[in-house]
């Protein structure tokens, strides 16, 4: 009896399931909902749903849900999604955006060279100030900031945004202002303790070296080019005494012998020694006055920070420091000795066997490296006392 009842129940259950399945099939064949579970608009067969479903596809763990409800042609959805996320004229949304608020000294530079010049990728430089709220960083050059900050952004700074302070002048040649404290997040200068350090030049190892590069022909002993003259500068005082003991070919506005950019290389490369005298003496302040003669095959005679500081950037055998001698007269005697001994003179070029010199591109390199720093470092930081750090 129990066996018969059980068989009858199973038979009835099977019939019920079959009926439900049949009517469900009829229902889905003839009924087309106007709204689905994701509120996507109705679409023709073999097409894709609208922006709501595409947005759902962008969300984590939602792909299967979208597939089950409103995607008929998955390939076309991926194509549509790709088109909606294509890079715009303002740069790819995945790029770190650095806004150049002011070009240094008003001199624009090419904004598209970070990848080719410095192998920096994922950065987008722009000078379009309408991008302020989107920019991850904003670039400000100290020398172009108005004293009353009237040319700074008027909109509130977004919380994620970094303001980068750029300066390549020494503290002696930069105006100090108290209203710059607590304004910037990052610093980009020639100094090694900057967040983004960009020296005036670099030396790096080059594969194969430059062992057989010829030293240019020399027809002058000591040369100096100077236009910014101040009799109180240390370099002016040293020159005044040095010239009493050795002949120095002088050029520049101060000596009424201005030379053009086209003739600069010819003049410097024709000198055995060049006076690479800085206009002010500060740690790490080692400018193009050193790197230009090095690249042109001339031995620089430096006056600036101590020798030890120079040797943090270039080999000690590549230059002559005025502090190596007790007086300008002793320096003059040493230069005359090298002039008479070619083997001793050529020892100052041995660095060329393994190293190559390069100079920074002011503005462009700072912007590229600042953008790359922001892309790699998401931590919060603020420069509370810029004045004490830079001028203290």
TrEMBL record:
Main location: Golgi
Record bears the keyword ATP-binding: no
Primary enzyme class: transferase
Molecular function via GO: 4-galactosyl-N-acetylglucosaminide 3-alpha-L-fucosyltransferase activity
Membrane topology type: Single-pass type II membrane protein
UniProtKB keywords: Disulfide bond, Glycoprotein, Glycosyltransferase, Golgi apparatus, Lipid metabolism, Membrane, Signal-anchor, Transferase, Transmembrane, Transmembrane helix
Residues of the Fucosyltransferase N-terminal domain: 96-201
EC number: 2.4.1.-
A Pfam cross-reference name: Glyco_tran_10_N
Fucosyltransferase C-terminal domain location: 216-389
InterPro entries: Glyco_tran_10_C, Glyco_tran_10_N, Glyco_trans_10, GT10-like_C_sf
GO biological process entries: lipid metabolic process
SUPFAM superfamilies to which the protein is assigned, alphabetical: UDP-Glycosyltransferase/glycogen phosphorylase (SSF53756)
Transmembrane segments: 12-31
Reaction equation(s) it catalyzes: alpha-N-glycoloylneuraminosyl-(2->3)-beta-D-galactosyl-(1->4)-N-acetyl-beta-D-glucosaminyl-(1->3)-beta-D-galactosyl-(1->4)-N-acetyl-beta-D-glucosaminyl-(1->3)-beta-D-galactosyl-(1->4)-beta-D-glucosyl-(1<->1')-ceramide + GDP-beta-L-fucose = alpha-N-glycoloylneuraminosyl-(2->3)-beta-D-galactosyl-(1->4)-N-acetyl-beta-D-glucosaminyl-(1->3)-beta-D-galactosyl-(1->4)-[alpha-L-fucosyl-(1->3)]-N-acetyl-beta-D-glucosaminyl-(1->3)-beta-D-galactosyl-(1->4)-beta-D-glucosyl-(1<->1')-ceramide + GDP + H(+); alpha-D-galactosyl-(1->3)-beta-D-galactosyl-(1->4)-N-acetyl-beta-D-glucosaminyl-(1->3)-beta-D-galactosyl-(1->4)-beta-D-glucosyl-(1<->1')-ceramide + GDP-beta-L-fucose = a neolactoside IV(3)-alpha-Gal,III(3)-alpha-Fuc-nLc4Cer + GDP + H(+); an alpha-L-Fuc-(1->2)-beta-D-Gal-(1->4)-beta-D-GlcNAc derivative + GDP-beta-L-fucose = an alpha-L-Fuc-(1->2)-beta-D-Gal-(1->4)-[alpha-L-Fuc-(1->3)]-beta-D-GlcNAc derivative + GDP + H(+); a beta-D-galactosyl-(1->4)-N-acetyl-beta-D-glucosaminyl derivative + GDP-beta-L-fucose = a beta-D-galactosyl-(1->4)-[alpha-L-fucosyl-(1->3)]-N-acetyl-beta-D-glucosaminyl derivative + GDP + H(+)
Pathway(s) annotated for this protein in UniProt: Glycolipid biosynthesis; Protein modification; protein glycosylation
Highest taxon in the source lineage: Eukaryota
Any one GO CC term of the record: Golgi cisterna membrane
Localization in the cell: Golgi apparatus, Golgi stack membrane; Golgi apparatus, trans-Golgi network membrane
Record's subunit section: Homodimer.
Similarity-based family: Belongs to the glycosyltransferase 10 family.
Name of this protein: Fucosyltransferase
């Amino acid at each position: 009896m129990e066996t018969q009842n059980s068989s009858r129940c199973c038979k009835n259950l099977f019939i019920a399931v079959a009926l439900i399945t049949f009517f469900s099939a009829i229902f889905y064949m003839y009924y087309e909902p106007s709204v689905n579970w994701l509120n996507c608009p109705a679409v023709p067969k073999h097409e894709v749903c609208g922006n709501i479903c595409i947005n759902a596809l962008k969300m984590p763990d939602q792909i299967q849900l979208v597939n089950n409800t409103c995607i008929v042609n998955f390939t076309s959805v991926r194509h549509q999604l790709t088109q909606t996320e294509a890079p715009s004229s303002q740069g790819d949304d995945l790029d770190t955006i650095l806004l150049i608020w002011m070009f240094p000294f008003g001199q624009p530079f090419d904004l598209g060279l970070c990848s080719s010049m410095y192998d920096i990728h994922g950065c987008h430089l722009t000078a379009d100030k309408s991008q302020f709220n989107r920019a991850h960083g904003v670039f400000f050059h100290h020398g172009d900031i108005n004293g009353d900050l009237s040319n700074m952004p008027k909109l509130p700074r977004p919380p994620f945004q970094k303001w980068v302070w750029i300066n390549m002048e020494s503290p002696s040649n930069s105006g100090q202002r108290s209203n710059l404290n607590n304004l910037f997040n990052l610093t980009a200068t020639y100094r090694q303790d900057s967040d983004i350090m960009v020296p005036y030049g670099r030396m790096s190892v080059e594969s194969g070296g430059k062992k057989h590069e010829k030293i240019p022909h020399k027809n002058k002993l000591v040369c100096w080019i100077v236009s910014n003259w101040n009799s109180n500068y240390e370099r002016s005082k040293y020159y005044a005494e040095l010239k009493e003991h050795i002949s120095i070919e002088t050029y520049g506005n101060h000596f009424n012998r201005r030379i053009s950019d086209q003739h600069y290389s010819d003049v410097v490369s024709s000198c055995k020694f060049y006076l690479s005298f800085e206009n002010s003496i500060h740690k790490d302040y080692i400018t193009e006055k050193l790197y230009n003669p090095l690249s042109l095959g001339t031995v620089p005679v430096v006056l600036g920070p101590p020798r030890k500081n120079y040797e943090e950037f270039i080999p000690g055998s590549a230059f002559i420091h005025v502090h190596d001698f007790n007086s300008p007269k002793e320096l003059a005697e040493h230069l005359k000795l090298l002039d008479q001994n070619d083997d001793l003179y050529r020892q100052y070029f041995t660095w060329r066997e393994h190293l190559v010199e390069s100079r920074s591109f002011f503005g462009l390199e700072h912007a590229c490296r600042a953008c790359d720093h922001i892309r790699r470092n998401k931590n919060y930081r603020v420069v509370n006392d810029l004045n004490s750090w830079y001028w203290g």
